[in-house]
Amino acid sequence: MSFQNPVFIPGPTNMPEALRQACYMPTIDHRSPVFGKILHPCLEGVRKVLKSDSAKIFIFPSTGTGGWETALSNCLNAGDKVLAARNGMFSHRWIDMCQRHGLDVQVVETPWGQGIPAGTYEAILKADKNHDIKVVLATHNETATGVKSDIGAIRKAMDAAGHPALLFVDGVSSIASMDFRFDEWGVDVAVTGSQKGFMLPAGLAILGFSDKAIRASDKATLPRTFFDIKDMQKGYDNNAFPYTPPVGLMNGLKLSLDMLLDEGLENVFARHHRIAEGVRKAVDAWGLELCAASPEFYSDTVSAIRTPEGFNATDIVTVAAKTYGMAFGVGLGEVAGKVFRIGHLGSLTDAMMLSGLATAEMVMVDLGLDIKLGSGVAAAQAFYRHGQASARKAAA
Amino acid sequence: MSFQNPVFIPGPTNMPEALRQACYMPTIDHRSPVFGKILHPCLEGVRKVLKSDSAKIFIFPSTGTGGWETALSNCLNAGDKVLAARNGMFSHRWIDMCQRHGLDVQVVETPWGQGIPAGTYEAILKADKNHDIKVVLATHNETATGVKSDIGAIRKAMDAAGHPALLFVDGVSSIASMDFRFDEWGVDVAVTGSQKGFMLPAGLAILGFSDKAIRASDKATLPRTFFDIKDMQKGYDNNAFPYTPPVGLMNGLKLSLDMLLDEGLENVFARHHRIAEGVRKAVDAWGLELCAASPEFYSDTVSAIRTPEGFNATDIVTVAAKTYGMAFGVGLGEVAGKVFRIGHLGSLTDAMMLSGLATAEMVMVDLGLDIKLGSGVAAAQAFYRHGQASARKAAA
Amino acid sequence: MSFQNPVFIPGPTNMPEALRQACYMPTIDHRSPVFGKILHPCLEGVRKVLKSDSAKIFIFPSTGTGGWETALSNCLNAGDKVLAARNGMFSHRWIDMCQRHGLDVQVVETPWGQGIPAGTYEAILKADKNHDIKVVLATHNETATGVKSDIGAIRKAMDAAGHPALLFVDGVSSIASMDFRFDEWGVDVAVTGSQKGFMLPAGLAILGFSDKAIRASDKATLPRTFFDIKDMQKGYDNNAFPYTPPVGLMNGLKLSLDMLLDEGLENVFARHHRIAEGVRKAVDAWGLELCAASPEFYSDTVSAIRTPEGFNATDIVTVAAKTYGMAFGVGLGEVAGKVFRIGHLGSLTDAMMLSGLATAEMVMVDLGLDIKLGSGVAAAQAFYRHGQASARKAAA
Amino acid sequence: MSFQNPVFIPGPTNMPEALRQACYMPTIDHRSPVFGKILHPCLEGVRKVLKSDSAKIFIFPSTGTGGWETALSNCLNAGDKVLAARNGMFSHRWIDMCQRHGLDVQVVETPWGQGIPAGTYEAILKADKNHDIKVVLATHNETATGVKSDIGAIRKAMDAAGHPALLFVDGVSSIASMDFRFDEWGVDVAVTGSQKGFMLPAGLAILGFSDKAIRASDKATLPRTFFDIKDMQKGYDNNAFPYTPPVGLMNGLKLSLDMLLDEGLENVFARHHRIAEGVRKAVDAWGLELCAASPEFYSDTVSAIRTPEGFNATDIVTVAAKTYGMAFGVGLGEVAGKVFRIGHLGSLTDAMMLSGLATAEMVMVDLGLDIKLGSGVAAAQAFYRHGQASARKAAA
After folding, report:
1. Cys staple from C153: which of B105, C118, D150, D291, with CB 3.0 to 4.6 Å?
2. Is B218 an 8 Å CB contact of chain D?
3. H or E stretch including A63?
4. Boundaries of each Aminotransferase class V domain copy (chains A, B, C, D) (predicted)?
5. Mean pLDDT (whole number) for B355-383
6. A-interface mutation test, from D312, D315, D362, D371, most A Cβ less than 10 A away
7. Which runs of E-coded beta strand occur in A155-299?
């Protein structure tokens, strides 16, 4: 474990020093008023990152998966009907969780590489005259395929169908890195974690609930205690948790939120887009293709890159780790062996990203792919470089 | 937040520097072989701390409460009958969780200050001819009252009744600080967390399952995904987790286990007993009484101390925090306002403990209690001091 | 190295967490503008701590000893005459350094336990009609004996004699803990280090120079390069050092200065006095005496405590370290074996100090001294405790 | 200060996490035996890194400049004659220090870009029949020009002349990164610092003295106290320093030495050579030239790169810092504005180095230099990449 190179997995992401130090605080009494000064700024900051005025924010010592379970178990009853699209490993896993909790999932099978088909959702919702469907699930950013879906379009589909279902959105690998509009999109539950855009260690499930989702929890009978939002809310009302809170991680989250909001959310999103666009230029220069089928689906946090037929893409990840000490992501599920993934979210600079691209190139050449060394790097450099005007100004 | 004084809450406990540093490691790829080198030593070390040869160990990014839910949801079905004693706030909360998960709890109401009545359990189990009771719950150390229960006696009661129920033990505030014998006591599920005897931040639920408990999970139908031990086991078999693992905390756990096992478990337990005994000498010198009704119930990790009738014990905690920057624990539930608690587990020295006792004395005198300054400290010093032979040897 | 107990040596002192984190920042380019944002606040903050409007501040990667050498080598010529009092090990060492640099030191031998005799200084200076004496040395706080000298009185003596000598003050164990008035006292060079009142690791010599001292450096011919203040000043004028600066330590100093100035210097001094007074109450309760001969000499940063005739005071330090893991200071030079020292400067709370006193009591009893356990603690507690009014307010 | 990118200044270098943590230890009593367990492994480890069996090692809380002063002031008398070559800013500064300490320096002016001319040294030494020259100075690696000198050849020149002068070597930017042979080369004093090959913060001057140099110190009359090696040796003999030691930094040095010796010195040197060679391939691909005049002078720790006539090389450093947040080194003295420097020593990976090269390319293109983006990166990649055999093995 040399810790020298940055990581390029799509989360956990590289941790800024200041966040590590914030997490690394000594023990405090979590029942003292000090904890409230960590808790409430976290709740308020997350609400801002979600672009919501009124969402209730919940933070659990858990992960995004625990966040999904929180969404389901607080709002639904066994046997309830749920609409979901399967277009990657993470949407698949959420569907699987629904089924294991006794929900009746109507699955819209979608090619891996494409986003959620809002039109299909609309048709299904229109056909659901009895409003049996209680919840519509949407994975904002499929981490497995590097595919972004259009949540606003799904809301429009729901509205067009006049359907009262709740809208649950998995924003684990989008929130705090890509634009997310809880209020504007009419999201009812948004789910994320600490280890992606928030640049922290794994260990927090972070959720926003609309009033409608909170009301649904009054009647929901799926069993829950650890993930119960009412217990959690009671805790918050007393500056506390219903059990021992993860104080250090939340202290880190507080600082992460300060950093993100100080930079400005739009700047954060633009920075992610810029870094991602450089990666895409490199992929193009390599003569390779993204798993994401078309530009509208391109993710600004992770790129899944298809390798030629007959080549095992996982070898790239293995060789990069063993030979160059650099971490990329493997393909999962349907695209295992067919893609490798470059995570480009969180705390990254042009220089860091170029080191990732340069290493990927060496690995691909080592493995016999027909890639020209420096070609992807040059394409990204051409995109990243600031130009003569900027240089003249800096040098002045 | 001055972080200058040690904390004397009954967890989270004071973190040794080395453990803090181990926890806040930079990001690694949790799908790389590096993670396996953290995971497996954790599993093996926890098994040793539980004194078990064969328990399956599970570690979740959660807390002790999540550990309880893991125990219930993996082994039981809605409507199953459970036997439990309520003798403090934590046993109360576990009972409450059972009820919220649709279990039928037979509650043995027990005075707060006493341990679980093994005889009563035996009688109930003998009367349960149909073996309707599927699980016997036992809180090894009631953190709210500073009361230890005799788990070996409960096992004997179960055996005397010839009853096949599973035995679930909450060892959150005992494991790694007080003797715990998973195999000898025939425990089926043991539950603990990272933030007590393991001296780490909160954020890990740590469990041991017997084969019998694992088998029970084959048929258990309570819904679960995040806390599913089968998914987790499949993850472990691939050096992984079914979702993002809390790598840093587990790296801390690995080092904590090394530290505990290097010191020797019996030495760790003796150290806790010694520190605790000094606290009890001080309480006696103050003319106060423990909540624990008799010596057999005395906890070596936390002392709940009764204050005189008409005095609000919570004031001690408030004044200590505000005036002296020191954290003690309040009374909870039935004993709220009647006791204050001194946590004395984890990483503590005589000198640290004496600073806690000295501060408690100042606060009690400030609040008008009839306590002689220095009296409790002197009683603890007389117990802690090493004596002339030791001094002569050290000075030589 | 358990790092669990606070240290009670008279420096290096206990480091607040925030300062440790500030010191161990990652590498930056020390020739970039970033360094200027660390450097200049350090210079300005130190000037404020010295209570000077115009002193030039110099910071060297060195220690207090290097600071002394900086003072001498920048202002003096071989053969120059210097006036100094020897009343402890540190004033002795400074005299020794002068002699090794070829200076002619007129030594005023002073009983260890007493301060610098201003009257004697005045008589000598009056007698020095030719003004051969170029510098008057004064150790503000003799760390070896816990004796404070009255620097204002020395300035008055110099003025009464109408003597133009420079006044050099060793404030290593006083500055940032005890009142120091560079301008009011007409100090020409003040010397301190990072590891005492500034609560940082050792590694910085910190000095203030008056204009007069700066002018003296124009003609001073003692050889110097590393410690040359002119080179250093040229560096500062370019936001730099003449060699690689200790960036992390200076980043720590910047934060330390913020902390001290935010607390308020008078509050810092009052806090030190209060903690020290509690220690003195304990010493009195033990029936022991300070090395400092009378209250006017009592140091608020370190107490040297005399032990009975025939007892080896160093044993206290040895046994405390080996048996209780706690660090006190030994006696040095003339008072070796006759005193042990309790450092009470820097980042300390009442509770921390009481843990030191309680441990010292156990050690002394272990070693057969006729001390009553708890007696010193009780005396300090009675002084430290806040009283009923404060408690009622806090509890409200 | 984002701390995200590695630095490419020729020191201070990038600090491995483990070293930062080792430096970042809490306060210990530096007079306790614990300190000896840090001190002696440091002394022994440095001796091994110097490839010496018997050199006395001295570590001062200072920098390389202080190390130079230690060498001079402990071994020489005012007026002593010294032989030195000036071939860059650091050799220049050492000569300047000699002159300021009253030494008579015979300067061999040498083109910046060339190494020390051993032949000229030999001729001068042969001509010095009276052996007036007391010390021969040699800068092993001129950090300003990226020029390595052949110290073995200088020893041969001295031997050929039968001259008894001492040989002082500045190894600040070579030791622990490039081969250094104290015994074989007959070095009398070697000087280095903590912030280069040892990968630590600045703050330690580290020296090796031969017996002959130690003997010279018996008669040397240049004034010294802080840098006195006899005082220091007396300290070491008691597991101590003559003043407060920089404990944390030395704890870091201890671990750094373990890391270097575990890796194996020859492997460390090979790694530096490899990284450096990649940089030189890139420089060649850019069509630029090194300041170092020929391959025998190429430094494996820093490359000074000449830019075209009329171009201000310092702009590269300014723009890299302001626009890309990356630190390179400027040209100093004679080559100011004519070269920029890439430091490639200490803790670096291929990927890190490629990020530096890629950034330098963008900056040069931004500034209008005729450089092809990706060209230098590709040349370095071709050199760094491990090849198909290695990849096949890793993937297997």
Report:
1. C118
2. no
3. none
4. 33-323
5. 98
6. D362
7. 166-170, 189-193, 204-209, 289-290
Nearest by CB to residue B225, choosing from A1, A24, A97, is A97
In tens, the pLDDT along A300-311 reads 999 999 999 999
What per-residue confidence (pLDDT) applies to A1?
47
The Cα of A65 is separated from the nearest Cα of chain B by a number of Å equal to 6
**Does residue D2 surpass a pLDDT of 70?**
no
Q: What is the CATH number of domain C17-262?
A: 3.40.640.10
Point out which residues pair with C305 in neighbouring strands: C290, C340
pLDDT value for A2: 67
What confidence score (pLDDT) does residue B1 get?
A: 46
Segment A16-37 mean pLDDT: 94
Would you state the pLDDT for residue C326?
A: 97
Quote ipTM for the complex: 0.97
Express each pLDDT in D212-266 by its tens digit: 999 999 999 999 999 999 999 999 999 999 999 999 999 999 999 999 999 999 9
* Distant-in-sequence, close-in-space partners of A40: CB < 8 Å, separation ≥ 6: A239
**Which DSSP string do the residues of D196-264 spell out, in sequence order?**
STT---S-EEEEEE-HHHHHHHHH--S--STT-HHHHHHHHHTTS-SS---HHHHHHHHHHHHHHHHH-
Which whole number is the average pLDDT over D138-149?
98
H helix or E strand, kind and range, residue D48:
helix D33-49
Cα–Cα nearest to C192, from C11, C8, C9, C349: C11
The domain limits of chain A are 17-262, 265-395
The yes-or-no verdict on residue D1 having pLDDT over 80 is: no
Say how many C-beta atoms besides its own lie within 10 A of residue A267's C-beta. Answer: 11
The sign of the dihedral angle between the CA atoms of B226, B228, B229, B232 is negative
Instruction: Inform me whether the C-beta atom of residue D109 falls under 8 Å from chain C C-beta atoms.
Output: no
Interface of C with B in 2-61 (CB under 8 A): 2-5, 14, 16-17
User: What residues in D contact B26, CB-CB < 8 Å?
Assistant: 17
Region C270-292 average pLDDT:
98
- Select the residue of D17, D24, D26 nearest B26 (Cβ to Cβ): D17
CB contact under 8 A, D247 and C32: no
CB contact under 8 A, D243 and C63: yes
Which residues are bridge partners to C342 per DSSP?
A: C303
Dump pLDDT digits (tens) for D114-125.
999 999 999 999
Task: Report the C-alpha gap between B249 and D306 in whole angstroms.
Answer: 49
CB interface of D with A, residues 315-354, below 8 Å = 315, 318-319, 322-326, 347-352, 354
* C-alpha distance from residue A303 to each of A9, A68, A297, D11, D294 (Å): 10, 23, 11, 36, 45
Average pLDDT, chain A: 97
- Cα–chain center distance at D44: 20
Provide the token pair at A188: 């009812």
Give the tens place of pLDDT for each residue, C98-114. Answer: 999 999 999 999 999 99
Q: Do C21 and A21 touch (CB under 8 A)?
A: yes
Interfacial A residues in 53-82 facing B (CB < 8 Å): 61-66, 68-69, 73, 78
